[in-house]
Amino acid sequence: MTAPQIYVSFPGTAREALGFYASVFGGELTLHTNAEFGRADGAPDAIAHGELSGVVALAGSDTPPGGTSVRFEGLMLSLLGTAEPAILHDWFNKLSLGGRVVDPLAAKPWGASDGQVIDRYGLHWLIGYEPGADA
Predict the structure, then answer these.
(1) Do the domain assignments include residue 135?
(2) What is the pairing mode between strands 7-10 and 58-62?
(3) Which residues on neighbouring strands pair with residue 102, listed in sequence order?
(4) Nearest-angstrom CA–CA distance, 83 and 63
(5) What's the pLDDT at 118?
(6) Which of 31, 35, 108, 114 could, after both became Cys, cross-link 50 (CB 3.0–4.6 A)?
(7) Which residues contact 56 (CB under 8 A, 6 or more apart)?
(8) Is residue 55 located within the same domain as residue 82?
(9) 23 assigned to some structural domain
(10) What's 98's domain CATH number?
(11) CA 23, CA 16: separation in Å to the nearest integer?
């Protein structure tokens, strides 16, 4: 790995959340339960480790009882210029379902197009592209 990877501690929703991100971004999703890893610090079917690999990489697990789950403040996951504009709009729209649009993905006064959305699992995304982009 050449860059930091986002690893999210989900409050018992890792299977659902990582499946959602796989449906948005595509890629390969692998999930491993506590039972598979021989862990006893949570339900046997809780996710001990899950990983989405592909264009957007994301990993996570279910928080063990008493653990702290995801809380985002002052942090965004940036997908600026990471795909063609049509794909970025599609991702933005899918992430918006059940989430909250903070700033619509649209042309801005400085010439770029970008927007922000907090998805249904609490992750804050910044998505956009430069004019004439065909990333």
Answers:
(1) no
(2) parallel
(3) none
(4) 32
(5) 96
(6) 31
(7) 21, 24, 25, 27, 79, 82
(8) no
(9) yes
(10) 3.10.180.10
(11) 11
Assign 3-class secondary structure to the chain: CCCCCCEEEECCCHHHHHHHHHHHHCCEEEEEEHHHHCCCCCCCCCEEEEEEECCCCEEEEECCCCCCCCCCCCCCEEEECCCCHHHHHHHHHHHHCCCEEEEEEEECCCCCEEEEEECCCCCEEEEEECCCCCC
pLDDT, one tens digit per residue, over 84-122 is 999 999 999 999 999 999 999 999 999 999 999 999 999
Same domain, 81 and 56: no
pTM: 0.90
Let me know if residue 71 belongs to a domain.
no
Distance from C-alpha of 18 to C-alpha of 7, rounded to nearest angstrom: 11
Residue 101 structure tokens: 């649009």
The single residue listed with the structure tokens 């804050």 is 124
Say which amino acid occupies 71: R
**Residue 2 located in a structural domain:** no
Domain that holds residue 116: 77-129
Q: Do 51 and 93 share a structural domain?
A: no
